[in-house]
Amino acid sequence: MHRSTSPVVSTRPRSPRRGTRSALSSTSRIVAPARRPMEALESRVLFAAGDLDLTFGGGDGAALINFGAGSNDFGSSIVALPGGKSLVGGAVRNGANEQFGLARLNADGSLDTTFGTGGLATLSFGAGATDLQSLAVGSDGKIVAVGSFDAGLGADWAIARFNADGTPDTTFGTGGKVTTDFFGFTDNAYGVDLQPDGKIVVTGVATGVDAQMMTVRYTTTGALDTTFNTDGKQSIDVFGGDDFGANVKVQSDGKIIVVGGSVQPGSYRRFVLARINANGTLDTSFDSDGLATADFGSAAFGKDVEQQTDGKYVVGGWVDTGTTDDQLDFAVARFNANGSVDNGFGTSGRTVIRNTGGDTFGACGLELQQNGKILLGGTTHDANYSTNLRTYAGVARLNVNGTPDTTFGPGGLRQFSMPGADVGSTKARDLELASDGSILVAGYATATGGNTDFAVAKLQNNDGPPPTPGSVSGVVYNDANENGVRDAGEAGLPGWTVFQDLNNNGVFDSGPGTFTSTDVPKVISDVGTPTVISNLVVSGAGTSISDINVTVDIKHSWDDDLTVSLISPGGQEIVLFANVGSSGDDFTNTTLDDEASKPIDDPSLSAPFTGTFRPQQALSGLDGTDPNGTWQLKIFDDIEGDGGQLNNWSITLTSAPEPSTTTAADGNYSFANLQPGDYSIREVPQAGWSPTVPASGANLVTVGSGQAVANVNFGNTNRVIPSAVVGRHVFYNNSSFDGNSSAANAQDDAAIATDKQALQAVDTATLANVTSYNKGINGVMVDIARLKGALTADDFDFAVGTSNFPPQWSAAPAPVSITQRPAPDGSSRVTIVWADNAIKNEWLAVKVKANAHTGIGSDDVFYFGNLVGDTVAPEGGSTTKVSSSDLLATRNARSAGTVSVTSAADHNRDGRVNVLDEAIVRANLGHTLNLLVRPRSGDVFGTTPIGVTAIVASAPATRSRIPITRSVLS
Predict the structure, then answer these.
(1) In this structure, are residues 232 and 217 in contact, taking their beta carbons and an 8 Å threshold?
(2) How many CA within 13 A on the CB side of residue 275?
């Protein structure tokens, strides 16, 4: 399903006023999650259709989404996704930096941190004005966004495609982007839909002598589809004046319906509906020429269209009913399947909802309910708009015959400001029906400080019976014969915990607690202006933060020198304090708490700081996010000459546990009162047992309305089945293939060097074991089936060298992070990240230790090599060398388009082969790397021989300070 929206051509949303939300000096961009602190809701029933759904957005029915300090963000399109999630898109503007922006929300309105970075994703087309107007999501989860990009020579159509996780789809266009210019003037794409074969149909305006309604079809790679009207384009002229395409829908028969407005010279604009054959020609069976219009007696614009089950078309938009100033009221027309106006609808086929006002964007979103009623949403005014300039979100509901549905609100209309935003500052741009029948309204509003945020509201819609709750039930049993089926006589296992894995991290998140960092002490040098980072791993802390406090103990002379920030697992950075305390020293067990009575920057305070204070930036910005993962405390000392030490720090989290139950005496369990949607059901294995089924550990269940899903079972055997290393990968971290992100997350899967394999001790090396990445080896993944516990650096050994005798190699640089998440095959994917350039032009040896945490029966040792710029077959027998052959191969591989992750000549892994890659080869000419020949027996790290089975050891008494995080990733 797709949604789209389209403003009047040439109108571009303006920032109401540039705000004062600013980042403190030396801080990173702050990404504020959707809403304020979430409070427990009273049990209540809201009966009125159109009321805000108070289970959404932290208790007030709305979510405000900001993309960073100082950013003005203009939401324009929303798509309802399976499981109650939703995707919002729009323009993100921060000074001269303008981008496409996406945000994915959970069913409760919180940011879905498995998407992009902390739930947000952006994509820049370059320096210039950028607008995102409409979104479409394919059956494969890929996201297409359309709008415009203006580099100063006139705007062009801008089309981008993202992967389901929010990363740019580099198989589309160049780096996931395509621009189209028609006649050298201002063009804009406003609507998009996807064909079942993945082709992309876009409509909008192309400006030549006058404005033209343009519809274009692109292939799955972003090229113009020449099977569509011979050149991929269909330009429509209705009356000989300006024509504008606003939205497009692909019918089940392959025909394409386009809605918009056309101006008759000397007269006014009318609703226009065009139907195009699958080959791009106008469908002359539709109103004789493929074009149908509806005249409202004054200027009108069709903005969205839906087709009824009987083939009729319902078009929503606006009509100007003002006598002096624009009064753009909601308007709806219905056409018969043959293109004629349906006179049985409203008044002569038309309905106008008077006094709804609106702005130049008018009504934008239209949906048909299952019972045939019509929903229309957009921006509205109040009666005193000429003096107060206030705008509101408006949603209207019509009966099937086009009359206003007065059960929805006065005159069939609901108007409201987005909760949490300035009253009268709401602009509604799109409307969507959620899977449960509720109404999602998206747009933007002015938040505190004067900046605009994406805004999403959820409205009750009790028109018809609500979905009936369903249930899931099953049994946890002793799979004695380990065949994965419960056979006669196999007993149930009582007292086992079964839970709903809401964040799909594979761990039962049982709730709140205080978590203390072991990555201390950290010295703050008195030389230069150092930045110190300390990690803290949180696991099993619930699913959504409702409150967080931070306690720090820092010994430092001149507190005024320090800026201290908290960085969440999702990448949000909150400045706790900066340059406070004047000339005093130390922060002694200092707690930062939003509810404290006194701010830490109160000028009456002086160091040392002891007690509880409000931070300079509110920690509530993290409410609604997932607490699990690696947190960081960042300390920046901006003055040379005074040093100190971070002694310790901790965070106290309040968060909701995942729903769970305990198996009964017969091993049975059940979850009742489940709303329709998708669920991941897992068990918590008990000591001494190993799961046999499901292989991935998770039962993925879809619950329909009123559906009782039974036999969701878990088999276990009462012996320890050894874990096994089932995958060894090298990946190009911090490359274009993982979104140029240095963090470990699901995006890294797209950066796996699928043409490279790990070298093991029994093999002889080839270039298949060696990468040419100019950042060296900075990422390795190890997939472990039936992993027993959380891993840290103590569970690995790492060495680097170039000789054929690894026991003489040096210890490798310490990894930056070791993280863990589910792999696609159901095993556990452990991702190890090093700093860029830390391991370069040498071999890396990785040993996964056999111990109680890994569960493997013997050490697993493998190798990856790196020689920057090496492209072609080895030269010199057991040695490979960067030579003129590599330079020639790189030059021959140059391409204007994008290349895949396996392109040997893409040495900087930016998705292109160009002069930069040639320069990398030139800079490394003459460098060599020894190709290991069955690396000599003997443990790489000098303990036991390779291949000798080790006894599974108990947990070590102390653990290293490089911990594992469990990423919240789908």
Answers:
(1) yes
(2) 25
Q: Across the strands, what pairs with 187?
A: 206
Contact yes or no for 716/478 (Cβ under 8 A): yes
> Which region holds residue 59: left if phi is over 0, alpha if psi is between -120 and 50, else beta?
left
Contacts of 835 (CB under 8 A, 6+ apart): 778, 813, 816
Q: How many CA atoms lie within 13 A of 485 on its CB side?
A: 3
**pLDDT bracket for residue 512 (50, 70, 90):** confident
Residue pair 630/610 in contact (Cβ under 8 Å)? The answer is no
Q: How far is CA 227 from the centre of its chain?
A: 34
d(CA 362, CA 296): 15
β-pairing verdict for 609-613 and 587-592: parallel
Query: Which helix (H) or strand (E) element contains residue 819?
Result: strand 817-822
- Measured in degrees and rounded to the nearest 5, phi and psi for residue 906 equal -85, 80
Helix (H, G, I), strand (E, B) or coil at 53: coil
Token readout for 929 is 């790397």
Residues counted in the chain: 970
- CB under 8 Å to 3, separation ≥6 — which residues? 77, 78, 79, 80, 134, 135, 365, 430, 431, 432
Q: What burial class does residue 688 get, using C-beta atoms within 10 Å of its C-beta: 0-12 exposed, 13-18 middle, 19+ buried?
A: exposed
Q: Is 216 helix (H, G, I), strand (E, B) or coil?
A: strand
Beta carbons of 715 and 699 less than 8 angstroms apart: no
Query: Could you tell me the two tokens for 140?
Result: 């494969």
Work out the end-to-end distance of the chain between its first and last CA atoms, rounded to an integer number of angstroms.
21
SS3 373: coil
For the ranges 131-140, 206-215, 929-938, the maximum mean pLDDT occurs at: 131-140
874-878 contacts at long range (C-beta below 8 A, 24 or more positions apart)? 874/766, 874/767, 874/931, 876/928, 878/930, 878/931, 878/933
CA distances from 503 to 79, 403, 749, 936 (A): 21, 44, 19, 45
Q: Across the chain, what does the average pLDDT equal?
A: 85
Closest of 586, 584, 571, 693 to residue 622, by C-alpha: 571
d(CA 731, CA 801): 20
Structure tokens given for 508: 């039962």
Q: Could you give the CA distance from residue 357 to residue 363 in angstroms, rounded to a whole number? A: 10
793: how many CB neighbours lie within 10 A of its CB?
18
Higher pLDDT among residues 430 and 9, named by residue:
430
User: How much is the pLDDT for 9?
Assistant: 30
Alpha-carbon distance of 145 to 600, in angstroms, equals 43
Q: At 851, give phi and psi (nearest 5°).
A: -155, -175
Write down the number of H helices and E strands in the chain. 3, 60
Q: In this predicted structure, what is the pLDDT of residue 936? A: 61
Burial (CB < 10 A; 0-12, 13-18, 19+), residue 282, is middle
How far out from the chain centre does Cα 401 lie? 40
Tell me the backbone φ, ψ of residue 536, rounded to 5 degrees: -145, 120
List all residues 6 or more positions away from 803 whose beta carbon is below 8 Å from its beta carbon.
809, 930
Q: What residue type is assigned to position 757 of the chain? A: Q
Q: CB neighbours (10 Å) of residue 167?
A: 27
Q: Which two tokens stand for residue 489?
A: 């006589």
CA distance 389 to 366: 25
Distance CA 619, CA 611 (A): 17
Rg (CA), the chain: 30
- Highest averaged pLDDT of the listed ranges 583-587, 725-729, 763-767: 725-729
pTM: 0.50
Mind listing the domains of the chain with CATH numbers?
Answer: 470-508+658-717 (2.60.40.10), 513-655 (2.60.120.260), 724-966 (no CATH)
Give residue for tokens 């003459």: 926
Q: What is the largest CA-CA distance in the chain?
A: 91
C-alpha to C-alpha distances, 172 to 224, 749, 915, nearest whole angstrom: 12, 18, 22
